Every structure is written in C-alpha cells, then in structure tokens.
Amino acid sequence: MFRNYRKLIEVDISDSVQVIGEHAFSNCDSLKNIHIGTNIHTICGGCFNFCNALEKVFIKDLSNWCRIDFLSHYSNPLYNDADLYIN
C-alpha cells in the first residue's frame, strides 16, 4: 500500500494482481501515471482519492477496463480527469 507516499510518480501494477485495496494510492499527490494489469477485477474504495496529479491511465485492452468493478467514484483513476490509454 502506498497511501500518503507523496514521491510516487508512476506505478506499474503486475498482471498477477487482481484487487487493488482500499485507499491503496490515496493522497499520492505526485502520482502521474498508472499502468493497470490485465487481471485487475476490483479497485476498492478511495483508491485514488486526492491523486490530483494523475494524468495517464494505461491498460492493455478495453475489455479488461470494462470488467473492473470500481467500488466508489474515488476508486476510478479517471475521476481526477486522467486520460485512459488503451494498449
């Protein structure tokens, strides 16, 4: 969990990860880019709360994105006006 880690700029989540826990990246206010693995199926509440610098979210396939269960609006990294990049 990287909550409140203010020096974090980029994250690459492995394809082996299935769930991103509650508030995992909350208050990571320097986080700009995140690469989401193909097996993520759940992103828990508040995961990207106060990640206001987030600009780019990368995922390999649109169908992977559509399968993700976002448990709150702060779970979705696009909440902060980041752009989604496919493949």
Strand content: 15-25%
Low-confidence stretches: none
Structural class: mainly beta
Described by the principal axes of the CA atoms, the overall outline is globular
Major sheet = 4 strands, parallel
What Rg, in angstroms, do the CA atoms define?
Answer: 11 Å
Alpha-carbon distance between the two ends: 26 Å
Mean pLDDT: 94
**Main sheet: which strands, in order across?**
1-3-5-7
Please write the string of helix (H) and strand (E) elements: EEEEEHEE
| Strand tally | 7
Helical fraction equals under 10%
Q: Helical stretch count?
A: 1
What tags apply to this protein structure?
7 strands, mainly beta, 87 residues, single chain, 24% strand, globular, four-stranded parallel β-sheet, three-stranded parallel β-sheet
Walk me through the structure.
This protein is mainly beta. Helix content is 7%, strand content 24%. The protein is built from one helix and seven strands; from the N terminus they run E-E-E-E-E-H-E-E. It has one helix spanning 62-67, and strands at residues 10-12, 19-20, 33-36, 42-43, 56-59, 69-70, 83-86. Strands 1-3-5-7 form a four-stranded parallel sheet. It has a three-stranded parallel sheet with strand order 2-4-6, with no helix packed on it. The longest helix has 6 residues, at 62-67. The model has no long low-confidence stretch (mean pLDDT 94).
Provide the fold topology.
Layout: E1 10-12, E2 19-20, E3 33-36, E4 42-43, E5 56-59, H1 62-67, E6 69-70, E7 83-86
Parallel strand pairs: 1-3, 2-4, 3-5, 4-6, 5-7
Structure described in brief:
The protein is mainly beta and 87 residues long. Helix content is 7%, strand content 24%. The protein is built from 1 helix and 7 strands.
